[in-house]
Amino acid sequence: MSAEAVxxxxxxxxxxxxxxxxxxxAAARGADPDKYVHGLGQHKMCVAPPDEDVVTMGAxxxxxxxxxxxxxxxxxxxxATESGVDQSKAAAIYVHRLLGLPSACKTVEFKQACASSxxxxxxxxxxxxxxxxxxxxxxxxxxxxYELGSPGEPTxxxxxxxxxxSRPPRIMSLEEGHGA
Length: 180
Hints:
The strands form two sheets. This protein has a six-stranded mixed β-sheet, with helices on both faces. It has a two-stranded antiparallel ribbon with strand order 2-3. The chain is elongated, with a radius of gyration of 18 Å. Helix 1 packs antiparallel against helix 2 and helix 3 (54-65) crosses helix 4 (91-99). 30% of the residues lie in helices and 29% in strands. The chain has helices at residues 22-29, 33-39, 54-65, 91-99, 113-130, and strands at 7-14, 18-21, 44-47, 74-81, 106-111, 135-144, 157-166, 172-173. By secondary structure, it is of the alpha/beta class. The longest helix has 18 residues, at 113-130.
């Protein structure tokens, strides 16, 4: 990787400790377990307890991503989610406060299912590449809930990932072009 490369410096993941076994869910719904385990590619579906939400999961993932990062170099926090926590503040503000990041750090929430995390990552890459930001913390977290017995039920779950985007990256570079 060249000194000019921009990409991912560190990663953190978090999932709640509670889960539903997908084979048991399939049996309860009268479905073939292979449809969930092999068709969806998952053995367990994480379930957030009442005391966890996108903020706490996102902060937990971010805490892991920031283990070996100089937090004073984080210029922005981008939080991507479709799950809201209240009607007045972006989740990024809460994560910023929980992590004790610098007060000059900008916070932005991206809101729209899976696309928001991709857009947040691309925006972070662009800011770092432009020299406007040294490092950007990108957090994606969601709690997806669908009606019991609905076709979406086996696809729901909860979890978070956090990425530090920097120049130069330690893990992988993010090229300028991307596929949709």
